[in-house]
Amino acid sequence: MANADCIIIQGSNMAEAHPVGFQWVMEAKARGARIIHVDPRFTRTSANAHKHIPTRAGTDVVLLGALINHVLSNDLYFEDYIKAFTNASSIVSSDFQDTEDLEGLFSGFDPETGSYDTDSWQYSASQEGERVGDASTFTGRDGSHYTSGHAGASEAFGAGGPPLEHGLPERDETLQDPHTVFQILKRHYSRYTPEMVTETCGISRADFDYLADSLVSNSGRERTTCFAYAVGWTQHVGGAQFIRTAAILQLLMGNVGRPGSGIMALRGHATIQGSTDIPTLFNLLPGYLPMVSVGEHDDFAAYTDSIGRSEQKGYWANSRAYAVNLLKAWWGDAATAENDFAFDYLPRLNGPAGTYQTLMRMLDDGVDGYFLLGQNPAVGSANGRMQRLGMSHLKWMVVRDFSMIESATWWKEGPEIDSGELRTEDIGTEIFFLPAANHTEKAGSFTQTQRLVQWREKAVEPPGDAQSELEFLFDLGNRIREKLKDSTDPRDRPLLDLTWDYPVDESGEVDPEAVIAEINGRFESGPDAGKPLTSYTQMTDDGSTSGGCWIYTGVYADGINQAARKKPRTEQDEFAHEWAWAWPANRRILYNRASADADGKPWSERKKLMWWDDEQKCWSGPDVPDFPADKDPHDPGDTDAGGPAALAGNDAFIMQADGRGWLYAPTGLVDGPLPTHYEPVESAIPNPLYPQQSNPTRVSFQDRHNLNAPGTSGTHQDVYPYVFSTYRVTEHHTAGGMSRWLPYLSELQPELFCEISPELAEEVGIEPYGWATVISPRAAIEAIALVTERMTPLTVAGQTVHQIGLPYHWAQGTHAVVDGDSVNDLIGMNLDANTQIQNSKVTACTIRPGRRPRGKARQELVEQLQREAGLTLSTGDTRVTAPDFPEGTHPEDIDLSTGETIEESFDLPAHHRQGPQSPGLSEDGKHEQGGEED
Amino acid sequence: MGLLSGPEADPAADAGWGHDHDRKGFFTDTSICIGCKACEVACKEWNHNPQDGNLQIMGSSYDNTGSLGANTWRHVAFVEQGKDRIEEARETGRKLVSLGMPSIGPRSGASTPGGRPGEDLSRADTAPPDTPEFRWLMSSDVCKHCTHAGCLDVCPTGALFRTEFGTVVVQEDICNGCGTCVGGCPFGVIERRDDGTVAPKGQRGRVQQDVPNKGTANKCTLCYDRLVEGEEPACAKTCPTTSIKFGDHDDMVESAHERIAQLHEQGMTEARLYGANPEDGVGGTGSVFLLLDEPEVYGLPPDPQVPTKDLPHMYRTAAVAMGGMLAATALAFLGGRR
Fold this sequence. Notes:
Chain A has 934 residues and is an alpha/beta fold. Chain A is 22% helix and 14% strand. In chain A, strand 6 (137-139) and strand 7 (145-147) form a beta hairpin. In chain A, helix 14 (355-363) packs across helix 16. Chain B has 338 residues and is of the alpha+beta class. Chain B folds into 2 domains: 11-305, Alpha-Beta Plaits, CATH 3.30.70; 307-338. Chain B has helices at residues 11-14, 38-47, 83-98, 150-154, 180-184, 224-227, 234-238, 249-265, 311-337; strands at residues 24-29, 74-82, 134-142, 160-162, 168-170, 191-192, 217-218, 244-248, 272-274, 287-291. Chain B has a 4-stranded mixed sheet with strand order 8-1-10-9. A two-stranded antiparallel sheet of chain B has the order 2-3. Chain B has a two-stranded antiparallel sheet with strand order 4-5. In chain B, strand 4 and strand 5 (168-170) form a beta hairpin. At the A-B interface, helix 2, helix 3 and helix 22 of A face helix 2 and strand 3 of B.
């Protein structure tokens, strides 16, 4: 980032949530870069930017789409770059229909399932490829057919999405064919104009021009712009598409793979990047391999083909080697070629199993036990009330933490105890609290935003019985294996066959270097048997090598912990390749082939990074090339060979099956190949672009504790007239477990506050630093009001939009230094279908002066407003509003027009899953469409 | 014998130290402060200072520790300003520039902190920025370690002393808690630590902290215990944006002048230095600051004066008075003889 000429921070409060990384923004600023912050609030990031542009939360696609339209219609894009490296010239199937043609939906939408069949989104083929790994339909174990293209099936794909049907699409290099990606893009964004931005985002023409001019004048051969985002983009329904919009824009401007370019995904915890690489996610295995899905991955070949076929271009063609090495690392000698390397030991998914689906199963008494490691869902997850109620259905739960967090104390002092909804003596959940070592009390690695794997040593011994995760899980595994050791049940083989032989020190702590060595991988046989691998290119698919996460191979090259290197910056160049280790292969800038032009020459002297050295016949430059090191830029690629050999010399995007950066995504996303503006679920503003109001693929859950505000439906929008976002401040850490127990941090932000504009304070009669009560359709909380000009009312579609800010660090309890209400109780569960991430950034509410009612009266107030707004289980959950698309089973089965009152609808079973979007398990373990049970 | 006020080249030498060490100090550049408060936390962690306050929102933007005191030795102020105030700041700053503030003058191709030598900044955006509608100032305050330190000069027990680094430090084992220094500091920095026990909201008493040095005067030591080990102070070490810089005092003052020249070149006339003038009422401070508005806005006195500055005048007045008394007495005797 320090090398950028312009930095646009949007969807992130970088200075507050990532202050250490923000030093590089300040460095870029000191070097002369222009810093722009687009955000609903004026934050500490805005304070350090050249310009703050206030915007309406959830409208980012309109703003970025208008920038795309601006550069396309004024020929301001980087033509040589997009012709060389992107799929602009690729021709898309003539069956494809855009949102412009279908009132906000793409072709292939199935209103019955609320999901897309993506067949028509594909490239048109120049050579008929055999359809392998067809991901559009498959057969479930129970014999029922269902589509995997439906919303919520993204768990079936790894990082690259499903493989391309056709790796070598037809192209028109003149970009004139109406079916080229370029022309489709032009048409798709043609109505995303500066006027639309003003009308939708509340951003003035002058501010838009400033932003557009800053981007354009700081892009091209000589200059680069970079974007930074965080959960201000991801935590929306459609958040994945917000990021896609920026990716399209950056590709158009030539700002990918070059110094000071790119889109920085800012990660919010010490090793949250590491926990995606070697995941704690239900849908991924290490190295972005997908979790195995029933029906789709019924044998090993089908599984690896669904990731990447060996005949396709690029590095996913070696998916079989990556998967075999993982299985060998886990099951060692028990993983053989004969048993497909123990592929059947892997558990299978039969639908999304994210935290919210798990919660719904808890409420159904479908979950017995629950482990919480480094997580405080009673405070940190959407709809905290339901989280706590869900936990009361468990038989047992284990909380490992170093603070007595609210997820461990809700049963005796949570808000539902106060209100009488739960009584301690009625709760059957047995809770075990186990003390955990903190980061200074254990050695290991952190992987940060830049993919740097950084090692840290143990500074002090953990106090008392506190254990590291490593020690705890190793011990737990040993005990379970001990109990099962005489078992002959085949289902216990995966546990008993695990390689579970880590060296421990005298205190029982596992040697973490042994773990990173296993992740790195080693030769299992041959002359080098036992030696560490140095690169994932050494991985074979015959079982002669093993490695726990292919992208991390090299971190233990030569038997040396490369992550532990700490050579000072004063002793090396600014890429600092000898400071820690970056995956993959210690490359510091991804896709850096694109830093040189099609001929391999730097785009400019000023932005030189990697170039083709014609004498040495190799890629040269200060970074490690993210490309086959000796592949000539004019190499046409050996398409018969498949894999890296098939890459042409300008196929800079080496993970994609066509080697190109995707302006248009034919596969991988479940809600459209191009980002399209939809209004947030509870938005009261009609979508100005399409009759389709909000994202038709969203995942929602119908439950009496999870009602939506009416949005544009119904007649009672005035009950919840404002919107709020939840977020973090520098002084605290997420749900507070690491900060509210510390006096030095607690004193800096001791109380929950809400940020409101002077205009809103005036409108509702709230005094500066007085109490305010915020009420959503789910809950009511109280907060101190910070009345500040940092909050700006916006004029959108002729109405004034007031946005309220609420940090989410506080919770009710007696164990922390400071406490307060938990603002995530206010948020409903509406998820992005690609990622299963909740929307926490745009939620409807009302705000009143004074403190909230106590005890039972608190929830009575919430219910009173629900009645006033006429809410039912299906309010705000109409999936399709485009008139030409008849809704299948219309979710408005509990229609307001029937006159059915809210009390009556509450007589329904306690909750209904919004069926098609959340296939789950029924009690007999069969897969089912949730909709059927409704 | 040292001076009581005015420019003083080497306060440590003046206090009887040899010349083994250069005078150390901070340069706090508030124009690049991001308000993360890491300095406050690092300071408390290193010095084992107790938590402050009553754990309630103070009503001062994001600031909830209020000011420097016995327990808070780094304090970050948050100031929210509208357009009018910004224009005023720019205007008062412009007047300072035209009055000839101490400056080494604008330098062509001024070196940027962290900038790479030889880097072409010619295309950098140096146009005077439009006055923004709104700004949010953040500034980390700290003990000034004055050239002429009021606290030290008035201390009756010798608990306060001038270190070999030219800084001013309390020796807690000597301080008797008389509090004279509290009134002697023109910045309101030093304070007597009460029993220091933590009193969270109500009587919950959740936090048990060992509070050292109860009842004695407390303030920033410029991490004397780290300096003698060759380490930099905790706050400077932790600052992610180098807003807090630590080094030889002369270098700090010089880079402060370079930075102000750079900002003035960019049209930010509101920028000004604080404490960098050896002619001021405390002989210049060891901790210099770059501010973006008048000092009062940040809670700093505009024209601090060391109390001892008045000593010569007071002695002269006292001498005159004494002379007068003697004369009157003599006259009385003389008159009596008649």
